[in-house]
Amino acid sequence: PQRGWLPPSEFVPFAESTGRIRQVTQWMLEQAIETLAAWQAEGRELMIAVNISTLDLQDGLLPARIEALLQRAAVPAHLLQLELTETGLMASTQDPIHVMHSLHRLGVRLAIDDFGTGQSSLAYLQ
């Protein structure tokens, strides 16, 4: 990389605007699940969290792709946690609930990242 380390705030919006976010997410999921498999081989049952874009939740095939990765690596789904930003969920133009339900049924954990920075913040609620 010519610019060195880039924080997600710099490359995620670009990946989203160019339609490349799904490829970025797929690569991150592959890396995370391979890491989980390596940890399991060492006798460590640790969980890993991966931030995903709200745009990823518009992809109805996301749960099936994650399930295939988990099965191929023989990794239990409960060791994978997907983190979604509160502001991204609130700004979503499509209803991500059906994809979230499918992920939950697989056993994948879901978490709200940056909770309290958006519509649930005290300033907003007041």
Automatic annotation (TrEMBL):
SUPFAM superfamilies: EAL domain-like. SMART domains: EAL. It comes from the Eukaryota. Residues 1-126 form the EAL domain. Gene3D superfamilies: EAL domain. GO terms for molecular function: cyclic-guanylate-specific phosphodiesterase activity. PANTHER family: CYCLIC DI-GMP PHOSPHODIESTERASE PDEF (PTHR33121), OXYGEN SENSOR PROTEIN DOSP (PTHR33121:SF71). This is EAL domain-containing protein.
